[in-house]
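[step 3/7] fold_predict: job queued, chain A
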Amino acid sequence: MDGPPPHGDGLPPNPRAPAGTPEPAATGGRQVKAGRPGAPRWSGRRSDSGPAARSGHSTATPAHRHVPLVVAELVPPTLVARDKGAEDVRMRMTNADRPTSITGEDVGPTARLLARAFGDDPMMCWFFPEEAARPAALVGYFDTLLTRQYLPYGVCERTGHAAAIWVAPQAQEKAVPDEGTIRELAALLGDRAGWFRECVAAAAATAPQEAHWYLALLGTDPAAQGRGQGAALLRAGLARADAAGLPVHLESSKRENLAVYQHFGFEVLEEVRLPADGPTLWTMRRAPGA
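[step 4/7] structure written:
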């Protein structure tokens, strides 16, 4: 995500990092996968010998993070392709289950779908700790993100029971939240707004330095998990990135989803412990065509 947050909102600008040598050791609450080429330092630096440099893709795209830490999530393990089983799932999909673009009329239903999908997400539970108030707060949270940030500048798609938000390299500077977006989210977060800002800063420190597609959100309604809809949305976005010869980046705060994303070619770059006893965040990257 490109472009520093607007001045005056309390969010520090995202770092532009010089080239450096990856750290193989854990530092504090953050653990970097030892020996991983191009693994970022906590300062946000990435090595020019990393995957992007070797692949020939430009690493000049500035590093930015969206409001976020709304992480790509909830591709349930049942959606992992299993040869003929996965093919059977695809054959059973109806037209309503195929990816279509999200429009302004879809914002309300999509926000409610994502609120259900992220109801037990570690990051969202940390942001909204009151269980009784969480569903309504999450609807407002996702409605704000869709209306003000992702619908105007992202690639927003849904099926009957799942939704995905992608951001292309050329749109990342425009898709960062403006002051109004931050103000609306802070009102929803209440006394957690300060922690939210710290998390945005922490994510900025690990932002990719290469041109890439960003998977900002992926959620499946719990009642519809196992029908292949999340996987269909994921495949559609990965196909676009592959056609452009670009990698894909995402973050996840759910450990059980890591194996699912690894099945689709993603690799863990690092493990980040968020401030104020927040949950662990895993950053992941998928090379073109993986």
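[step 5/7] annotate
The mean pLDDT is 73.
The radius of gyration is 18 Å.
exit 0
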